[in-house]
Amino acid sequence: MSTPLYQLKAEFFKTLGHPARIRVLELLSERDHTVAEMLPEVGIEAAHLSQQLAVLRRANLVVSRKEGATVHYSLTSPLVAELLRVARHILADLLSGQAEILQDLRAAEAPAPERS
User: Fold this and answer.
1) pLDDT tens digits for 33-92?
2) Taking every annotated instance into account, which residue ranges of this chain make up the domain HTH arsR-type (predicted)?
3) How far apart are CA 107 and CA 116, in angstroms?
4) Distance from C-alpha of 21 to C-alpha of 77, rounded to nearest angstrom
5) d(CA 52, CA 64)
6) What structural domains and CATH numbers belong to the chain?
């Protein structure tokens, strides 16, 4: 019996469920990077970054290629970058709605003007 699509999607999103992995994918959405280039941007130790890259490689979201002693990482599909852009838009919409709610709450808490 094959795995249901919803379960495969859940596993896919679990793979994306780590901030370092998201940051790596964002960087690779811009261009190919080496580990040395990503380290200061991701802000984790080299061993931890290597582990996160291994998770992304196993999920077929990134690939690596060796040039001499240097390993370059890239996205396997431009759709990954598109997914990150869509997520950014969704978050912006959600946060915009929350900002409006917060504004309404603050307005409701403001003391009523005194009547003379």
Assistant:
1) 999 999 999 999 999 999 999 999 999 999 999 999 999 999 999 999 999 999 999 988
2) 1-95
3) 22
4) 16
5) 13
6) 5-109 (1.10.10.10)
CB atoms within 10 A of CB 27: 17
Q: Which amino acid belongs to residue 32?
A: D
| Model pLDDT for residues 63-79, shown as the tens digit of each residue | 999 999 999 999 999 99
Q: At which residue do the structure tokens 């994918």 appear?
A: 25
Three-class SS string for 20-63?
HHHHHHHHHHHCCEEHHHHHHHHCCCHHHHHHHHHHHHHCCCEE
Per the DSSP assignment, residues forming a β-bridge with 74 are 63
